[in-house]
Amino acid sequence: MDLLSNLVLGMSVALSVQNLLYALVGCMVGTLIGVLPGIGPVATIAMLLPITFHLPPTAALIMLAGIYYGAQYGGSTTSILVNLPGEASSVVTCIDGYQMARQGRAGAALSISALGSFFAGTVGTLIIVLFAEPLTRMAQKFGPADYCSLMALGLVAAVVLASGSVLKAIAMVFLGLLFGLVGTDVNTGAQRFTFDVPELSDGIDFAPIAMGLFGIAEIVINLERKMSRSGAIKVTSLWPTREEIRRSIPAVLRGTALGSILGVLPGGGPTLGAFSAYTLEKKISKTPERFGKGAVEGVAAPESANNAAAQTSFIPMLTLGIPSNAVMALMVGAMIIQGIQPGPEVMTKKPDLFWGMIASMWIGNLMLVIINLPMIGMWVKLLTVPYRFLAPAILLFCAIGAYSLQNSTFHVEQVAMFGVLGYIFVRFGCEGAPFLLGLVLGPQMEEYFRRAMLLSRGDPMVFIQRPISLGLLITTAILLVLMALPSIKKAREEAFQEEET
Amino acid sequence: MSRFLSKDFLSGVMFIAFGLVALWFGRNLALGTSVRMGPGYVPHMLADIMIILGTIISLVPLYSNATTREKETIWAPVGGAVVVLILAIRFVLPLPASLAQLSTDWLLLVATVGIFALLLICVLVNMSRGSHVAPSEKIDDVEPPKWRPITMVTIGIVVFALLFETTGMFPSLVALVLISSAGGDEFKLVEVVGNIIVLTILCVVVFKVGLSMNIAVINGVW
User: What is the SS3 assignment for B139?
Assistant: First the structure.
């Protein structure tokens, strides 16, 4: 069978010593980042982009993927032990996880969350394997107009799921598209917005922007706040009781299913998955009053959901080349740095990379269970490192990394510039993620738009006449209209308020 | 006057500024036609959209926090004036050629007219139903920034960039760590020196040995 031979190919790539090593490094760094509060997976991947530049493409992507799901595991550890979510997707785990820890069930909560995550990761990987080929085949039928509409849908969906003002998020997408235009125009060779700076003629490099917007801005915001640390709770036994296992199995299953679906949606991802799973568990539970007081389902469901979603959010990126969230946008950026144009061609032209990466995801998940459970004490110790040591270290890695991209200090200056811009964005309440998606998709979208218009001889009706494009545009319109409906608007605001507290 | 310090108002102004900058620096890029788009076609479209969205974003908080009386006496004329002003800036300032262009390119014409009509409708609808918007609606003010972290971090990185190629990694590392540490709340020299030592070793191991990058630790020495 085709699928099986693909998996064998993937395993043979992923099990090479070099790739195993990079998967391990990725998982370790990811866990580390997840454990350290105040720096999320987006900032980390942004900072490590330049380093992956020196690696072969497959190893680079395997490592970045490892960081991504490693952060999901690490984030849950701090949520449970110190009531500090390492990152957004484990915010809900705090609610019941920390209560369990206070009742002396920290070990049980940790192992249930790790095993649930592993199960969800396995299912998520299987889903990628099953859906990758049909979706890729579908994507190969797409014309320029269809692609343009697909990107519009992806961008709008990302906006809908950004917190805060929709209007501002849309404006951020357009700003990202605008920044994406800098450089030489592909069709005519004209210099656009390069200000006679030779370094800009290839376009603004993706890595310095991501580092500045996410890395530097995050550090500055953290420096402004005083970080308080509470002591960690001691872990005694890792074994859950039979009752806890009985309760958490259905929760893990439901969480995995919900997370897998929400992960595939453009704009979805781990955070959305975790929140929805927690709400679902609370709604269908016979004893909803136990939630918030250490219910094991409240740990099992969101933890498996966020990991399932972390896996399945790779699907639109790998098959269509459309990133569904900021982390995936960074992965697209990493592929472009490596000279790979993400899209349906990746699977046909680089099957070793494609299947190797998928296989490594499962291996990475297995590694994470091992990294996390027995070594839990070490990670907890890391929590005591004060931020005033971390901040300069992170800055330094950003600066050297940016320099190493093209051995030019201009890139380092760019990091500083975009750091200031990112800080302004945060202060003005503008989301960075829509900007990043716009930036990544900008050049391609313009290309497809111009090609579609050329093919149709300047007739914009082409976007409506093609059935695929029409369907995508209608979906986009429905999403926008739904956003404007008062009841949905209210529900959305409530959901994000919960996230902030 | 705090409504002028709200996040929405200021970010709207920022979007308008970006749009105007793009229009100004893109003024020499040929628009082309909708069949054969020139390098300037998409930038202009995006710049227009930026300006319009920025205007809407910045006007909404000003308007929704005004009293009914203010709405009638101040905002109706101001809203109208803003729309006219934007039209004027958009077509007169950066693009003397764009009016001639419009008459030959119906897509651009329709798009531009449509977008501005949309803007006008948005403003008008807001004004007519504005009376039932509570004047006490919460304004989300921009928090007063703390200048030290952002300036220190930025200066640190820029100094690093300036020193890196002339002096090598170690001096620029020391500068960056010293300056950025000064941006935090606590500054203890012993800790910072310790941090510098650890980071130097780490950087040499990771970048020089591990990734074998071509970086001088101290220029001319190692």
Answer: coil
pTM of this prediction? 0.79
How distant is the Cα of A488 from the closest Cα of chain B, in angstroms? 19
**ipTM exceeding cut-off 0.85 for this assembly:** no
Residue A501 is predicted with a pLDDT of 40
The number of residues making up chain A comes to: 501
* B211 in A contact zone (CB under 8 Å): yes
For residues A206 and B220, what is the distance between their CA atoms, to the nearest angstrom? 32
Nearest CA in chain B to A172: B15
> What's the pLDDT tens digit per position in A39-72?
777 878 888 888 777 788 888 888 888 888 888 7
B34 CB neighbours in chain A (<8 A) are: 453, 458, 460
Cβ of A46 under 8 Å from any chain B Cβ? no
B210 touches chain A (CB under 8 A): no
Measure in Å the smallest separation between the Cα of A65 and chain B Cα atoms.
20
DSSP three-state, residue A231: coil
The token duo for A297 is: 């389902």
Q: Which two structure tokens, joined as six digits, stand for A72? A: 């999901």
- Cα–Cα distance between A482 and A476 in angstroms, integer? 10
Q: Mean pLDDT across the stretch A120-145?
A: 84
Question: Which residue in the set A223, A398, A399 is minimally distant from B149, CB to CB?
Answer: A223
Nearest to B50 among A168, A175, A454 (CB): A175
Residue A458 and residue B53: Cβ atoms within 8 Å? no
Q: Under a CB-based contact definition with an 8 Å cutoff, are residues A335 and A144 in contact?
A: no
The counts of H helices and E strands in chain A are 24, 2
Q: What percent of chain A has pLDDT over 90?
A: 1
Give the chain A residue whose CA is nearest to the CA of B146.
A224
DSSP conformation letters of B170-203: HHHHHHHHHHHHTTSS---HHHHHHHHHHHHHHH
Give mean pLDDT, residues B14-36.
Answer: 81
A486 and chain B: CB distance < 8 Å anywhere?
Answer: no
DSSP A408: -
Counts of helices then strands in chain B (DSSP H, E)? 9, 0
Q: Say what the pLDDT of residue A421 is.
A: 92
Residue written as token pair 């900007």? A435
Q: What is the greatest pairwise CA distance in chain B?
A: 74
| CA diameter of chain A | 71
Q: In this predicted model, what pLDDT tens digit does every residue of B154-182 receive, in sequence order?
A: 888 898 888 888 888 888 888 888 888 88
